[in-house]
Amino acid sequence: MGRVELRLVVAPVFGTNCCVVSSGTDCVVVDAGAGVADAVGRLIDGAGLTPRAVLATHGHADHTWDAGALCERYGIPMRLHEADAYRLADPFGTLSPALENALGLHRDDYRAPAVVEPFATPGGSATLTFGEVTLHALHAPGHTEGSTLYRLDDEVVLTGDVLFAGSVGRTDLHGGSGQVMTETLRAVVRALDPALAVVPGHGPTTTVAHELETNPFLAAGRA
């Protein structure tokens, strides 16, 4: 098994961090936001990689919009937590009108993935294997019901919209909960290895150690 590598493509819509995670020649795409399909395809083909799945940290449109195009291009399934799978049928149905307008996307242009394979996290976690790529999925609800962190080996964690550099995800949209997010921050995020690098759903990368020390939301969750 080769070493896990991560390549980042930033989506033009909302700056979503789309990650191509590879080991050997196998890879998965995490958070295929709007406008990344062509760039991700060029990256994958240029590196001689074989995609095995498209994953999402959660089901919001800015993290899943190009998933259908990539799934069709490579004949691969979409994988996300079972609690968020319903969102793929209507990417705008759980967003506020203001946020829908801010995305600047059109319903008629949306292509849902043809094959969706939701996963469960009994006991709060699951190990997902795609050829030589292994990710450890940690259920982290609060931003959405099915928000998930993906830990890669003991080096990197993809946190989606649960944890950002200096902040955390909003909880006021459909399926969000401030109370549940507080528990996730306490029981899931604060339990992460401080040595892990963090790639959030938007914005700059950081580390768990830095966020534990400086992020006011994590400091508030210490009690």
Question: What would you say about this model in short?
Answer:
Residues 15-202 form the Metallo-beta-lactamase domain. The protein has helices at 37-46, 61-64, 67-74, 97-103, 178-189, 208-214, 216-220, and strands at residues 5-10, 17-23, 26-30, 50-55, 78-79, 125-130, 133-139, 148-152, 156-160, 163-164, 167-168, 197-200, 206-207.
Task: Draw up the topology in text.
Elements: E1 5-10, E2 17-23, E3 26-30, H1 37-46, E4 50-55, H2 61-64, H3 67-74, E5 78-79, H4 97-103, E6 125-130, E7 133-139, E8 148-152, E9 156-160, E10 163-164, E11 167-168, H5 178-189, E12 197-200, E13 206-207, H6 208-214, H7 216-220
Task: Tell me what you see in this structure.
- The structure is a single chain.
- The chain has 223 residues and is α+β, with helices and mostly antiparallel strands.
- It has a single domain (5-220), classed as 4-Layer Sandwich (Metallo-beta-lactamase, Chain A), CATH 3.60.15.10.
- 24% of the residues lie in helices and 26% in strands.
- It has a six-stranded mixed β-sheet.
- The longest helix is centred in the C-terminal third of the chain and has 12 residues, at 178-189.
- The protein is globular.
- The model has no long low-confidence stretch (mean pLDDT 93).
- Keywords: Hydrolase, Metal-binding, Zinc.
